[in-house]
Automatic annotation (TrEMBL):
<keyword id="KW-0344">Guanine-nucleotide releasing factor</keyword>
<feature type="repeat" description="RCC1">
    <location>
        <begin position="37"/>
        <end position="87"/>
    </location>
</feature>
<feature type="domain" description="RCC1-like">
    <location>
        <begin position="39"/>
        <end position="421"/>
    </location>
</feature>
<feature type="region of interest" description="Disordered">
    <location>
        <begin position="1"/>
        <end position="20"/>
    </location>
</feature>
<feature type="repeat" description="RCC1">
    <location>
        <begin position="319"/>
        <end position="371"/>
    </location>
</feature>
<dbReference type="GO" id="GO:0005085">
    <property type="term" value="F:guanyl-nucleotide exchange factor activity"/>
</dbReference>
<dbReference type="InterPro" id="IPR051553">
    <property type="entry name" value="Ran_GTPase-activating"/>
</dbReference>
<keyword id="KW-0677">Repeat</keyword>
<dbReference type="GO" id="GO:0005737">
    <property type="term" value="C:cytoplasm"/>
</dbReference>
<dbReference type="InterPro" id="IPR058923">
    <property type="entry name" value="RCC1-like_dom"/>
</dbReference>
<feature type="repeat" description="RCC1">
    <location>
        <begin position="264"/>
        <end position="318"/>
    </location>
</feature>
<protein>
    <recommendedName>
        <fullName>RCC1-like domain-containing protein</fullName>
    </recommendedName>
</protein>
<feature type="repeat" description="RCC1">
    <location>
        <begin position="193"/>
        <end position="262"/>
    </location>
</feature>
<dbReference type="InterPro" id="IPR000408">
    <property type="entry name" value="Reg_chr_condens"/>
</dbReference>
<dbReference type="InterPro" id="IPR009091">
    <property type="entry name" value="RCC1/BLIP-II"/>
</dbReference>
<dbReference type="Pfam" id="PF25390">
    <property type="entry name" value="WD40_RLD"/>
</dbReference>
<feature type="repeat" description="RCC1">
    <location>
        <begin position="88"/>
        <end position="140"/>
    </location>
</feature>
Amino acid sequence: MAGKKRRPSTTDSAVSKPKRAKFTLESAKLPELTREGVVLVTGSGECGQLGLGPDIFEKSRPALVDTKHEIVDICAGGMHTVCLTKEGKLLTFGCNDEGALGRVTEGSEGAESIPGEVELPGKVIQISAGDSHTAALLEDGRVFAWGTFRDQHGNMGLTLRGNEKLPHEIVQDKQVVKIASGNDHVVFLTNHGEIFTCGCAEQGQLGRTSKRGSGRDARSGAGKGQIAKLLQPTLISLNPSKKLHFDNIWAGSYGTFAKVAGKDDIYVFGLNNYNQLGVEVKNVENCQYLPALSRQFSKHQWNIISSGDHHTIALDDGGRTYAIGRKEYGRLGLGELDSDAIELTEIPTLKDKKVLHVACGSSTSFAITDKGELYGWGMGTNGQLGTGEEDDCVEPTLIKSKQLTDRAVFKVSAGGQHTVILATNSNNNKGGDA
């Protein structure tokens, strides 16, 4: 009888399987920083978020901000504004009660209402802002944040120490390639296609907790222990068998969108009470607590997805603009509607235009064409549309003003009640908003 053959050992080099190479994301699609411009603002400035000084509380048309810098990107928070300079430095202005400006303003009258520089240990390549926080991605992959998150109980803090009034390195031992902020959460995309989130989870926007674990009073860890879990950047929850990696992220007020690497598939999580995530939610809270494939958003190749409180505006790679979600105040740009848009619908007024950029505020929407024209629609109560009136606009409306004459707009960002515009500085007008 032949001897029993020895079973090859899994440690034998001849039969051992090579380790699977870790997915690496060579680069992420960040906002272009090659064009410099001037900053214009419109809307409410009661907290200094217009950057026009302590005596200017409102503008109904775009007004010029004196930054003394060449600006390449802008971001409107809830009640503050962030500007990125050509040199990779940050300027902030607005409400600093909870540290959203990232600089000391106490003891200097009016310091919040004029642009001031934030001290950071490197060149910034991307900015994001929420209701009461700001985040900055450095060119070496580090992320710094400051301010605070809030939930239904009030202030959560940014870390367990509470509010961070100066820049704090929020992600450790990860190389981040893109960031995105909602009202009270931050999303991080790493160079390995992973997504980390932190902040408020009450509407499911972190994509890593059940409803039971979404609040600070969750059974899984009451008080500081539970808050620590929410404030610590942690991987979103995914089915391991799917082996998903991502190459783009976007954040809305209460939701998150993530694009699968090499595919058109979009996974979403967060508040979906008006179908703004484009996915059917079967719980009474209308929240998608864990990542789910959005069949609506997976039908297109997206350049930008921007989401407000209850609506989403998305720009595909062909320059076509779509809307979905709540109809009130005309924020969808689809004209007078009898019902909300539960499917992505192309905006008719913009069909014959090539749109290069879109942005949402809480209840507003904006689009910029290849001709440098700025269109706005939605709630106009505080002058945030820049039309000179406080009327709502139910269709995209061309924004005209003295400060936009002979200027080409190329970026726009909308906050709670104010809007920030970036335009080429071909116009020599100094001040004024007629």
